Amino acid sequence: NAGVTQTPKFRILKIGQSMTLQCTQDMNHNYMYWYRQDPGMGLKLIYYSVGAGITDKGEVPNGYNVSRSTTEDFPLRLELAAPSQTSVYFCASSRQGINTGELFFGEGSRLTVL
Amino acid sequence: QKEVEQNSGPLSVPEGAIASLNCTYSDRGSQSFFWYRQYSGKSPELIMSIYSNGDKEDGRFTAQLNKASQYVSLLIRDSQPSDSATYLCAVRGLDMRFGAGTRLTVKP
Question: pLDDT digits over A54-81, tens only?
Fold first, then answer.
């Protein structure tokens, strides 16, 4: 099992460009999440999904969009990139149930907007 | 607004000492609580999970949960230099929220 796979690992964007961060998991988890982590800070929830076809906003959704057409994939779309979106992005998944719910993280995608 | 607050760091302890990390949360509907360790430039990794009031021990780590006080803590006994990292408290309600993290340094 590969777990949670994120691509790309690194990307530099110009202001106003758009891009998609890809995330896929092979653990058949129903929940998936996108977080961003600014230097020296904790993780801020951008969007999450409780299953295919269902997404919901987190703490910091502005400037981002997501979709969940399959259980495995949860891409994050950045429209009109701004310097404030420079961050490390983590995708995670979890299986929900009684006394479960730990997150499994991808390796992160480091995005710089210049 | 669902808030997760951690005691501000950085925290520095000598090797062999006990490190104490604290976390409070605002959402009374929270059901599950986790501590993650994150080394610089790496993804967070799970250290402990706790779901009911009381203590849970795993090796040198003990998590404590008090739902009435909305408080979670992590004790690291016999701290080692390899424990030097940022520790993140995470709280699950409808979603999963993280605190800002506490940076721990264990000095040899």
Answer: 999 999 999 999 999 999 999 999 989 9
Distance CA B61, CA B39 (A): 17
What residues of B are in contact with residue A35 (Cβ under 8 Å)? Answer: 98
Identify which of A1, A3, A28, A5 has the alpha carbon closest to the alpha carbon of residue A109.
A5
Q: How many cross-chain Cβ pairs, A to B, lie less than 8 Å apart?
A: 54
Strands A19-25 and A4-7 turn out to be: antiparallel
Q: Please tell me if residue A34 touches chain B, with a CB cutoff of 8 Å.
A: no
Contacts of B43 in chain A (CB under 8 A): 90, 105-108
DSSP B60: T
pLDDT by residue (tens digit) across B4-57? Answer: 999 877 999 999 999 999 999 999 988 899 999 999 999 999 999 999 999 999
Residues B23 and B72: beta-carbon distance below 8 Å: yes
State both tokens at B21.
């990390």
Query: Which of A43, A102, A107 lies at the smallest CB-CB distance from B88?
Result: A43
The alpha carbon torsion through A4, A41, B74, B107 (nearest 10 deg) reads 110
